[in-house]
Design a protein that fits this description.
The strands form two sheets. Strands 2, 4, 5, 6, 9, 10 and 11 form a seven-stranded mixed β-sheet that branches. The chain has a four-stranded antiparallel β-sheet with strand order 1-3-8-7, with no helix packed on it. The chain is mostly beta strands and 115 residues long. It has strands spanning 3-7, 10-12, 18-25, 34-39, 46-51, 57-59, 67-72, 77-82, 91-99, 102-105, 109-113.
Length: 115
């Protein structure tokens, strides 16, 4: 059974940083592309970043230069380092692993950027 568990969300002031984690079980993350999405209140879920199985990274324009996606193969965990946070980054953040056997999502972790 595949499980993705996000942690690391919370309340942070504008300009601050957070690091989100996505721990996987039942699947080997390095074999797949992994993605982060987010959903703000009243808005559609939007793509944030991708790390390919080969380690290539891609970012939405809204987070480029501020967010960094990475993966620790030994821990089977993916990360999203978020710097220079603004209130517009407030959302529930989800990790996602699309595979041929199914599309897997975590339960989400809330990030709130507010003074």
């Amino acid at each position: 059974q595949v499980q993705l568990v996000e942690t690391g969300g919370g309340l942070v002031q504008p300009g601050g940083s957070l690091r989100l984690s996505c721990a996987a079980s039942g699947i080997i993350l390095r074999d797949y592309a992994m993605l982060w999405y987010r959903q703000a209140p009243g808005k559609q879920r939007e793509w944030v970043a991708t790390i390919s199985s080969g380690g290539t990274t891609y970012y939405a324009d809204s987070v480029k230069g501020r967010f960094t996606i990475s993966r620790d193969n030994a821990k089977n965990t993916m990360y999203l380092q978020m710097n220079s946070l603004s209130p517009e980054d407030t959302a529930v953040y989800y990790c996602h692993c699309p595979t041929g056997a199914g599309n897997y999502w975590g339960q989400g972790t809330q990030v709130t950027v507010s003074s």
